[in-house]
Structure formats: structure tokens, C-alpha cells
Amino acid sequence: MSSTAGSTRPTGGQRPPRPPFSVGTKVLLAALLAVPVVFGLAVPLYASETPALAGIPFFFWFQFALIPVSAVMTGTAFLVTSKHERDHRRQR
Amino acid sequence: MNNGIDAVALGVFLFFFLLVTVLGFLAARWRSGTTLESLDEWGLGGRGFGTFIAWFLIGGDLYTAYTFIAVPALLYAGSAVGFFAVPYTIIVYPIIFVFLPRLWSVSHRNGYVTPADFVQGRYDSRGLSLAVAVTGILATMPYIALQLVGIQVVLEVMGLGGGEDASLIERDLPLLVAFAILAAYTYTSGLRAPALIAFVKDTLIYIVILVAVIYLPIHLGGWGDIFSAAQDKIDASNEAAGKPVAGLLPGTGAAQWAYASLALGSALALFMYPHSITAVLSTGSRNVIRRNAALLPAYSFLLGLLALLGYVAIAANVDSDNAQLAIPLLFENEFPSWFTGVAFAAIGIGALVPAAIMSIAAANLWTRNIYKAFINRDATHAQEAQQAKVVSLVVKLGAVAFVLVLPGEFAINLQLLGGIWILQTLPAIVIGLYTRWLHRWALFAGWAAGMAYGTWVAYVQPSATDPTVTHFGSPLALPPFAEETKIYIALLAIVLNLVVAVGLTFVLRAAGVDEGVDQTRSDDYRADAGDGGVADELDPQETPADTGDSR
User: Fold this and answer.
1) Cα distance from A1 to chain B (closest Cα, Å)?
2) Taking the domains of chain A in order of start, what are their residue ranges?
3) Range(s) of the domain holding residue B177
4) Which residues in chain B touch residue A18, judged by CB atoms under 8 angstroms apart?
5) CB B297 within 8 A of CB B96
6) pLDDT by residue (tens digit) across B248-267?
7) Which pTM value belongs to this model?
């Protein structure tokens, strides 16, 4: 059951708040997450029939290939954020 | 097309339908706390789902039966722009990764159940919160109706429900029965029902699609033949029209702008939908969301394969005036009866999961942001849960009436509008997660401007291919002052929305208009499971598994 629903404020954390990411980490995260967005939206880059792969036009297989690539990028970003949180917990 | 009822296919379909019905009712006791009598339990499944369950739940929620019918139908009809669903579901995950953990944190700290709860807490404005809630409900209703269309398509191909000459009751009885059962177990089990059923749905979908994309190309002579069959059909339709109306891929600049703007606009809108946020808030920790942003693209791959089945249907000589029937007909023609039954069950159950989550999300919005905010301000947790349960029934009833009474295009037009509308809540929700600089009344005015403009522009769009369609003919429109490049209307409306919101914020701030009191604190936005004010809402069974990554 919720003890914090409605207007009652929680009493506040026993832990100190998480520190924000450093600038370097932020840049790394932004770069990792930008890859899927930029390539996904760069339609003129991939709107072409050739080179075909096993009969599948480039347009289609490029986008299929982009899916695992973006998953790896987002997955790496996840590892970066969870390492940041682990380091923070160790410091306490 | 009605060639009688295939008993084997129908038997398999009914078997799976019964299976999920039993699961739906049993779900009430699955991982449950002491009682279902609160919105945290009924409406968010106890707020403790881990990575595994969340993957099935969110995947089952976002990739709906209607998507599975409509996306390949677009390719079948010769519109490669329909493949935008793939980049759309690629770029949505980085977006999720960035802002949803913040929404999760502030919602768990403050007991928010809906996005409109957050807007109320952040901006101290019942008007703005009401706007967000009403938009969410309006955008969700046609979406539920389209799930029914997904079931209807499958039932029609199976030969259930009679032909054109059947009476209204006879034709729609199977659909009504399916929805009555769905309504009953959603009522008793809340969000746990779709969470449990999603396992069955997604397992079936993965099996069916993988079998289809491996077996059918071998059977039909390989992908090369499939694409050349599609090309032939497209050439024929271009020749018949006397101008290029179709293409194997978006070749022209205009088609590429359409493709990219639909992908971007839809990706931004997806997580404004109440049912998406409901699924995300049901997770047990921030890391569940981030991890799933990397794992959920598996569904995008599936969706892409499914889209290609539209071309496979062309190569397999599926002939249907109604493109939405292409995929069910393809399955029926090419597969043995029992496997057709499995495929139809996958689509049918694929409609039930999102329909359940959507009705719960709409019920949560009603209960928290209309009932509790305006009608009964002292509602107890039990009253909230009761109210939401009843409203979830009303919402489903409304969706059924919608589909049965109004013509089919109506739901599709409203779904188009829903996408435009829901994006107009983005400034209040997403920008609000980072800054409170935008004034609450400026946000309200921006929302109103975006809604009105988007609705009007969508209304006046004629269809590019069918001269008899003069309204709601396209999700694309010319931006002001542009001459030929059309882009997605939702993006046009959000630009206007933002311009109004920023401009009025300067005015209202200069005039010193009261900006209300922020009930959230800056450290709320980074709080995680186990932190103060968050821990007690978690399911104790889930906490060790999902917060234990510090070891």
C-alpha cells in the first residue's frame, strides 16, 4: 500500500541524493544515445535499393541492421549509468 | 472471402482464448499484496515489476494487434512509408532512456499514478492537469477501438460472425463475448491481468512471425522474388494511376520527409500515451526502465519482419480489396489449419493486452484527475480503486459502441487525431521534468493552440490518392509558407504549442502572474528504489532482484 499517495509529503531520504553525472559522462551518454536517433532519421542516407543483401533492398536491411546497433548503444548507456550509481554507493 | 469455418483453426483459437481467460482471473492473486483496493495495486500492479515482466508487459502494450494488422497492410497497399514504424521504434528507446527514469522517480516519491498527477504536483494547476488527463482519455479511446478492429479482422477471416447479410447481433456476437470476458478479468485483476497474459501473447507472436519469415520466403522463392513481385504490383498501380502513387521505398524528397517526420513525431508521442506511462510506472526501479530500453528493440525487429509480410502477401497472390485482411488471409492460405489457429490467437490476444492496459490507464486518469480532483476530493484508496474499476468497464463499453455503431474510418481518423493530440501534452510533462520555467498558464495556452491547430489541419487534409476523401485524408500537411514538402501534422502542432508556451511565459512572468507552488523537490527526480519515500511502495518479492545490482 502506498504511504505517500495524495498530498502527504514523504519524510525525505535517508540516503543523500545521487550526484549528477560528470560532464564527460553526460557527453558519452549523449553520443551513445544520439546514434540511433540520427541514423534513424537520416532517411536520404538509406533510401536506396542497392546494395541489396540476399535480395533484400538496402533500405530494408539497413534499418534491420540499425536495430541491434541501437540496442547495443542503449545497452552501453545503461552500463555507464549503472556503474555511476555503483561507484556512488561505494563512496558512502 | 467467407469460405466457411475451419474447425481446427477455430478450436486452436478458442483453446488459447480460454487459456488467457483463466490466466486473467488467476492474475488477481499473482504477486499480490494484501489487497487490490488501491490504485497502486489495481492500476499499477503493485509498482514492483522487474525487468523480465516489464519487457513482456511494455512490449505487449506498445506493439498492438492493430499495429500488426495495419503496418503490413500499408506495405501490401504499396506504401513503403508504412515502414516508418521501424525507425519510429528505433528512436523511441533513447528517448525513453533519457526522460522516463526521471518521471518514474518523481512519481514513486510522490505517489503519482498518472502523468496528469505529476503535472498537478509540479505546476499546482488543476486546469493544466485536467487538460493533460482529458487529452489522454480522448487519445486512448480510439486506440482501444482499433484493437477491436484487430480482433474483428481475425474473426472475419475465420468465418465467424457471418457475412454481410448477417444481422448486427449475429455479426458482432463473438466480438462482444471476447470483450465482455476481457472487461471482467480487467475488473477483478487490474494491471496484473494483462501483465500475465502478455507472456502468452508475446510468445505466440514471436513463434508465428519467426515461422512466417523463415518458411514463407523459402516456399515463395526467396526475398528477391518477393521484392520483385511487390515492385511489379507497384509499377502496375502507378501505371493505372498515371502518376507515381506507390513505391518500394521512399525515393522522393517529399516521401523521405514524410517518413522521417512520422517516425520522429510518433516516437515523441508514444510515451505521452497514458497506457505507455502506466506500464512504465508499474516497474520496480529506474534500472528496469533503462535495461528495457536496450532489450525492447527486439520487438522492433519483429515489427519490421511483420511489415515485410505485406510484400510477402503480394508475392503469395493474396487478393483482397481490404488491405487489413492481407495478413490474416496470407496465414490462412499458406499455413496448415492448426498453425493458422495459433497465428489468429496471437493477433486476437495481441489485441486484449493493450486494450486492457489502455482501459486501466484511462480509468486511472479519470479517477485521479477528474473524480478525485473535482468530484470527491476526499476519496479514500478503496474508493479510488472502485471508481477506476467501474470506469474501466465504461471505457471498454464506449470503445465497443464506437466500433459497432460508427463507420470504420471514424476510429482510424480519431486515432490519427489522437496521435496529434497526445503530443501536445509533451511540453507540460517532459519539459516539466527538467525545468519549471514555462508558466503553467502559458503551457495551457500552448496546449490549447496545438490541439485546435492540429485538429483543424488534420480535418482539412484531402487524400492524395482517393479524390472522394476530402477530410482526414493524410497525417501529413504543408507547413505554413512551404510549397511542397509535407510533414507530420503532430510536429507542426507541437511547434506552434512551444512557440505559444515560450512567448506567453515571458509575458506572464513580466506581469508577475502567480506560478503556483511546486510540490516536488529536485532530488525527487533522481530517487531510486530503496531511497526514502520510495521503498515502501515496492513489492518485497521484487526488491532484491532489481535493486541488488550494487553487488
Assistant:
1) 6
2) 23-91
3) 7-408
4) 523, 526, 528
5) no
6) 888 888 889 989 999 999 99
7) 0.88
